[in-house]
C-alpha cells in the first residue's frame, strides 16, 4: 500500500472512526493468519497487502500467525514457504506465532464453557448431525446428547484428550441455538479427534480445535485490534463474537472482525486444494511451477515484488467480490520490467543470414545500450560477424508495404549495427528458407523503416527457453457446475524452445530478468547453470491473448447491427474514442484501456497516426493514446522523423504527468 493515498478505503475509515472514538493508536495491531496447508497464491497478496500495508501506514505491528489446527494437511514445508514469500514481497512481521501455541489455553477455555453449560460432547454420526442441523430455510432440531450433564461432558472431553476414543467417536460442540437463523450458530463444532502428529506439537494432542473456535480466541490472546478477513467469513462474524463473549476480559482490547472482497483472477484457480491436485496429478512441476498462480511460481517466472504490490494497490480494497482480469497483473509486470530489465538479443526461431560482402573472418564489437529507460544502466559490447541468426518471422520473400521487416529486395537496420538488403535465399528440399543472402551498407545514417534483433552465429550461446501460456483456457475454470476445472487445462501452456542468445548472457544468474528485444521479458530459471542456460518467459511485450482465445469462447451474436458496425470501425477510430476519456478514468480502468489501445495499435499504420500528431493541447487523453500507438510502431520498426520528434518534444513539455511519462518512454 502506498503512503500517498488518494482517499481512505472503507477499512481505513473504520480504523479512523475507532481512533476518533477513543482507541489509542498504540493499541493498533494487525495480523496475517495463513493456514500452512499449501503455498501462498496471488489471491493471498491482497490480504497480505492490506494487513501489512495498514501496519506500515499506521506504524503498527503486524503478526504472522499460522493457523495450524489441522495436522492432517499442514506441514513445515508450507510454513517455510509462506515465510519466504511474505519476506520476498518486502514485508516484515513483528512476531511469528502459531495457533498451536495456544492449544492449552483453548482447551482450558473449552472446559470453562462446558462447566457453564455452553458446550457439550456429541456422540452421533456426522450424517445424523447433518440431518438435525436443518437448512437455511428450516430450523434445526436438538440432538439426543445436547443435554448431557456437565459432569459427563467433562469426563468425556478429558477422555477424548487422553486418546481413549477413535476418530469420529465424539466431538465437542458449542451449545448455542439449533433454531438460529444463521446455520453457523447451530451448535458449531469446537473440537474433533485427530490421531495424527502435528508438525510442531508432535503427538502431544489427539484433539484439535476447529478454525472458528481458534481464530477469534487467537486474535484475542494476541490483542489484535482489527481482524481482517475475506468476505466468505462475514457469516462467521456472529460466531466470532459469540466465542469472544465467553472468554472476554473487559479490561482487555476486544478484536473487531471486518471483511473485504477476495482477489479473484481470470483464467486462474484460487483454491489451495485444487492447486494441490494440479501438483499431485503432475499437471505442473510442483508448487513453484511458473504456470502456477503461487507467489513462488510467479517469482520463478520472473515477477517482481514491486509489480505484485502495484497490482494489489491498483485493484484496491472493495466490499464486493469481483473478478480481476489477469491482463492487469501482466500489465503491471511489463511496466516494472520496462524500467529495470536490461535489453538483450535472443533469437527463438532462427534462420541464418549470410552477409556476402562482409569479410569472412572479421569480427566487430558494437556498443549498445542496456536500457534506454535507465540512464545508469550503461552499455555493453556485442559481436558482429558475416553470419547471423534472425527470427524466421522477420523475413518474407514477398510482402506488402506494411511489413517493416526483411523481404527480398528490401532493407532493414540491424539493431546497433549495419543496414542490410536481402538479395537471395537458399531453400531446403521442402522449400523452407534456410539461408538469406544479404549485402550490407556502412551508410547507417540512411533512414529505413525496420529494425531487427540478431545474434552472431559464431558467438551465439545455446539456451533452453520455456515459453509459458495461461494454464487454463477458460476465464473461470472452476465456475462450471457440469464440468470439472481440470477439463479446461490448456494443453499448450508450456513450450520448450532451443534458442540462441548473445554471449553476454553466458554469465547470467538464476533470477536475473531481461527483455529479449522485440520478444518479451524473460528471467533465468532456478535450474539454469553456466553449462545449460534456461530462461522462463515472464510475459510478452504486448497482450496477445485476445487473439489466441479459442473460438468456442467467443460469444456468437447475430443480427446485432451495433456490434457489426463496431467491428467495421478502424482501429485508429476506436483508439481515439478510448483516448477521449482516458484522463478521467480511475487508475485500474486506465491500465485496462491502455492495454486495449496497445492491442489495437497493432492494426494502425503510420499514415493513419500522423494526422493525430497535431491534436489540440487540451485533448490530453487523445495525445496519450497517440503516444501509446507511436510506441508500438517504433517497436515494430518505424523510425523517428521530424514529425515524430516534434510531437514527442511537445508532449514532454506538457503539464500532464501521464502524457509526459509516455513521451519520455519513447
Describe this structure in words.
The N terminus is likely disordered. The longest helix is centred in the C-terminal third of the chain and has 16 residues. The protein has 20 helices and 29 strands. It has a 7-stranded mixed sheet, with helices on one face. The protein is of the alpha/beta class and 666 residues long. α15 packs antiparallel against α16, α16 crosses α18 and α18 runs parallel beside α20. Keywords: Aminoacyl-tRNA synthetase, ATP-binding, Cytoplasm, Ligase, Nucleotide-binding, Protein biosynthesis.
How are the secondary structure elements laid out?
Blueprint: H1 10-20, E1 30-32, H2 44-58, E2 62-66, H3 76-88, E3 96-98, H4 103-115, E4 119-122, H5 126-132, H6 150-162, E5 171-174, E6 189-193, E7 207-209, H7 211-222, E8 226-230, H8 237-247, E9 256-260, E10 263-265, H9 272-280, H10 295-301, H11 305-315, E11 322-324, H12 326-340, E12 342-344, E13 346-347, E14 350-355, E15 364-369, E16 379-384, E17 387-391, E18 395-396, E19 406-407, E20 411-414, E21 419-427, E22 433-441, E23 451-452, E24 455-456, E25 461-468, E26 494-501, E27 513-516, E28 520-524, E29 533-540, H13 545-548, H14 561-568, H15 571-580, H16 587-600, H17 606-609, H18 620-635, H19 642-652, H20 657-664
Parallel strand pairs: 1-2, 2-3, 8-9, 10-11, 12-27, 14-22, 18-19, 20-23, 25-29
Antiparallel strand pairs: 4-5, 5-6, 6-7, 13-26, 14-17, 15-16, 17-24, 20-21, 21-22, 25-26, 27-28, 28-29
Amino acid at each position: 500500500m502506498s503512503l500517498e493515498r488518494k482517499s481512505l478505503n472503507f477499512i481505513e475509515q473504520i480504523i479512523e472512526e475507532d481512533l476518533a472514538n477513543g482507541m489509542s493508536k498504540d493499541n493498533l495491531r494487525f495480523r496475517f493468519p495463513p493456514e500452512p496447508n499449501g503455498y501462498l497464491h496471488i489471491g493471498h497478496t491482497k490480504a497480505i497487502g492490506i494487513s501489512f500495508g495498514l501496519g506500515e501506514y499506521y506504524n503498527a505491528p503486524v503478526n504472522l500467525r499460522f493457523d495450524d489446527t489441522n495436522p492432517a494437511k499442514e506441514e513445515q514445508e508450507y510454513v517455510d514457504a509462506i515465510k519466504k514469500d511474505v519476506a520476498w514481497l518486502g514485508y516484515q512481521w513483528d512476531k511469528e506465532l502459531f495457533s498451536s501455541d495456544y492449544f492449552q489455553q483453548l482447551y482450558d477455555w473449552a472446559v470453562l464453557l462446558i462447566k457453564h453449560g455452553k458446550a457439550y460432547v456429541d456422540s452421533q454420526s456426522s450424517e445424523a448431525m447433518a440431518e438435525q442441523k436443518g437448512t437455511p430455510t428450516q430450523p434445526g432440531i436438538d440432538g439426543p446428547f445436547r443435554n448431557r450433564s456437565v459432569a459427563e461432558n467433562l469426563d468425556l472431553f478429558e477422555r477424548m484428550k487422553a486418546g481413549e476414543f477413535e476418530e469420529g467417536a465424539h466431538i465437542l460442540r458449542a451449545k448455542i441455538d439449533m433454531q438460529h437463523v444463521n446455520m453457523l450458530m447451530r451448535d458449531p463444532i469446537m473440537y474433533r479427534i485427530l490421531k495424527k502428529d502435528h508438525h510442531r506439537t508432535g503427538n502431544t494432542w489427539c484433539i484439535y480445535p476447529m478454525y472458528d473456535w481458534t481464530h477469534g480466541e487467537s486474535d484475542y490472546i494476541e490483542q489484535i485490534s482489527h481482524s481482517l478477513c475475506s468476505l466468505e467469513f462475514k457469516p462467521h462474524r456472529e460466531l466470532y463474537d459469540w466465542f469472544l463473549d465467553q472468554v472476554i476480559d473487559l479490561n482487555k482490547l476486544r478484536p473487531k472482525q471486518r471483511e473485504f472482497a477476495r482477489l479473484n483472477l481470470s483464467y486462474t484457480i484460487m483454491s489451495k486444494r485444487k492447486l494441490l491436485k494440479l501438483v499431485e496429478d503432475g499437471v505442473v512441476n510442483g508448487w513453484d511451477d511458473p504456470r502456477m498462480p503461487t507467489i513462488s511460481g510467479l517469482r520463478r517466472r520472473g515477477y517482481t515484488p514491486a509489480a505484485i504490490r502495484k497490482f494489489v494497490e491498483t485493484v484496491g480494497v472493495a466490499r464486493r467480490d469481483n473478478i480481476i482480469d489477469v491482463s492487469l497483473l501482466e500489465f503491471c509486470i511489463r511496466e516494472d520490467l520496462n524500467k529495470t530489465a536490461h535489453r538483450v538479443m535472443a533469437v527463438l526461431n532462427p534462420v541464418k543470414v549470410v552477409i556476402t560482402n562482409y569479410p569472412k573472418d572479421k569480427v566487430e564489437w558494437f556498443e549498445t545500450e542496456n536500457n534506454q529507460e535507465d540512464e545508469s544502466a550503461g552499455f555493453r559490447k556485442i559481436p558482429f560477424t558475416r553470419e547471423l541468426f534472425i527470427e524466421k518471422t522477420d523475413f518474407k520473400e514477398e510482402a506488402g508495404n506494411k511489413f517493416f521487416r526483411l523481404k527480398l529486395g528490401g532493407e532493414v537496420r540491424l539493431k546497433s549495427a549495419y543496414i542490410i538488403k536481402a538479395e537471395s535465399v537458399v531453400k531446403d528440399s521442402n522449400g523452407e528458407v534456410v539461408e538469406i543472402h544479404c549485402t550490407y551498407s556502412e551508410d547507417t545514417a540512411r533512414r529505413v523503416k525496420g529494425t531487427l534483433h540478431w545474434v552472431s552465429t559464431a558467438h551465439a550461446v545455446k539456451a533452453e527457453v520455456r515459453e509459458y501460456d495461461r494454464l487454463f483456457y477458460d476465464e473461470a475454470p472452476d465456475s462450471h457446475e457440469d464440468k470439472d476445472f481440470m477439463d479446461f487445462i490448456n494443453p499448450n501452456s508450456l513450450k520448450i524452445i532451443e534458442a540462441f542468445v548473445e554471449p553476454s548472457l553466458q554469465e547470467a544468474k538464476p533470477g536475473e530478468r531481461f527483455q529479449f528485444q522485440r520478444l518479451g521479458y524473460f528471467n533465468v530459471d532456478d535450474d539454469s547453470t553456466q553449462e545449460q542456460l534456461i530462461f522462463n518467459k515472464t510475459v510478452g511485450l504486448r497482450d496477445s491473448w485476445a487473439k489466441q482465445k479459442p473460438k468456442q469462447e467467443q460469444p456468437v451474436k447475430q443480427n446485432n447491427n451495433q456490434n457489426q458496425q463496431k467491428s467495421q470501425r478502424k482501429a485508429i477510430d476506436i483508439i481515439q474514442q478510448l483516448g477521449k476519456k482516458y484522463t478521467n478514468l480511475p487508475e485500474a480502468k486506465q491500465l485496462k484501456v491502455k492495454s486495449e489501445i496497445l492491442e489495437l495499435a497493432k492494426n494502425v499504420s503510420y499514415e493513419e497516426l500522423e494526422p493525430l500528431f497535431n491534436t489540440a493541447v487540451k485533448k490530453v487523453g487523445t495525445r496519450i493514446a497517440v503516444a501509446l500507438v507511436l510506441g508500438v510502431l517504433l517497436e515494430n520498426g518505424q523510425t523517428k522523423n521530424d514529425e515524430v520528434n516534434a510531437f514527442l518534444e511537445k508532449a514532454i513539455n506538457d503539464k500532464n504527468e501521464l502524457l509526459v511519462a509516455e513521451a519520455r518512454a519513447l
